[in-house]
DNA sequence: TCGAATTTGTGCGTATGTATC
DNA sequence: GGATACATACGCACAAATTCG
């Protein structure tokens, strides 16, 4: 009875995936019900369920209890320009405005102490004092990005910019703020990775739990001195990060 | 009867995940068998299987038929340096060697025609002829990265470098190859995003289906002319992308 | 070498809960 | 309220791989 190599649920998943990717099944449209797929493909319920589970884990469809299984929209993600720092003002605001949306954000600063990981990233000792600021960024009032930033008190303590979002230099970028206290940021390093969304993140951004998130560990450097580091997280479905890299000509 | 909040299989998955992440269950060690987990947690077979499936899709464990389910080693993700182009030779090989591993790859070139998406990326007309090359990259003979590259025949057709991996210039980077036919690559743009792994990718790279993959759409530019574009995909669990960005000083 | 026990992967049929319409 | 649909759960059967006496 059992067919050749590939199990039934994989063959069904392949068939349905092809239909979705080819556009034959449009985003937003309802898939046939499980019962209908059983009849249509001549397999029993469990293989159908498992095939749909595969497509769900691939982010192609979503089951809504009581309603049906739907092909997901894959919104063309917005390009979030990175790889260009040094503009005046908030890099986030500039990026969002360029996309024709209105940026806004809320924040919350407090003093903390360096964990092992943060100490490594900032080149300070464990439990050294830091200023931590949590951000929730919005575009057109919709939450789109979370970020937590840390700056060593040894750098910003006692200066007018110790609270990133206060005073005349609130709401501008790290580069400009540091320049105001005589620190010249020369380099930004961004470590990009991705992982499923945590529950708190999903709630804060109005996303389904477990959807794919892009994560950025960003550090601002003034020559050899790390002056700021941040964890940034946003939905991979909604954003792509655009890095523009100049090429140094090959030496002959 | 049934617990209110979370289904049994999720609670079991949470419990086992916590044990794994805390180190209580060491990498390489065997998990209790399905039958043992049933007894231990007082649930029936299906929830146990589903919990293990969840952990498998998270890349934490691996089932070996006839033997058991084993906790996987979780390699600390390697930093894959990006944001620096122009070095001589293959950028991939240089990066892997720097991490102390031995790079290798296989490939397969064929002529195709531009789809709508590729035509946009390369600035050519739909169905214009392209040279397509699929790559499977390995580090120490372990598959780690997939990539498909396209170059317009209007750029490389009739030149010695039309087949990227043939001739004296096989195995070097795009920048160097293009230089050999008088084209000066000035800029590389990388669009980074992430999504769950497709089945074919998971099979090719020996990863669980649905695990998180980093995707890069990379385009090489010679001033206004796109000379190459590629889709690159790798496991987000194993890699992080390091972009180094020079800051242009703010103007006063 | 052989065979029995164990273990996972796969597949089937069914029952119950709950959300949607 | 009733019909439909998906999510979870139970119990069972078989195949293939592994382990071990």
Q: How would you describe what is shown here?
A:
- The structure is a homodimer of 252-residue chains.
- Chain A has 252 residues and is of the alpha+beta class.
- Chain A has helices spanning 8-21, 34-41, 45-57, 91-98, 116-122, 153-156, 174-180, 199-205, and strands at 61-64, 68-71, 78-82, 103-113, 129-139, 142-152, 187-196, 212-222, 225-235, 239-246.
- Chain A contains eight helices and ten strands.
- In chain A, helix 1 packs across helix 3.
- The model of chain A has no long low-confidence stretch (mean pLDDT 87).
- Chains A and B meet through helix 1, helix 7, strand 7, strand 8 and strand 10 of A and helix 7, strand 7, strand 8 and strand 10 of B.
Task: Please provide a brief summary of the model.
The structure is a homodimer of 252-residue chains. By secondary structure, the first copy, chain A, is an alpha+beta fold. Chain A has helices spanning 8-21, 34-41, 45-57, 91-98, 116-122, 153-156, 174-180, 199-205, and strands spanning 61-64, 68-71, 78-82, 103-113, 129-139, 142-152, 187-196, 212-222, 225-235, 239-246.
In terms of topology, how is this protein built?
The structure is a homodimer of 252-residue chains.
Chain A lengths: L7 H14 L12 H8 L3 H13 L3 E4 L3 E4 L6 E5 L8 H8 L4 E11 L2 H7 L6 E11 L2 E11 H4 L17 H7 L6 E10 L2 H7 L6 E11 L2 E11 L3 E8 L6
Parallel strand pairs in A: 3-10
Antiparallel strand pairs in A: 1-2, 4-5, 5-6, 6-9, 7-8, 8-9
Chain A binds a DNA duplex (21 and 21 nucleotides) through helix 3.
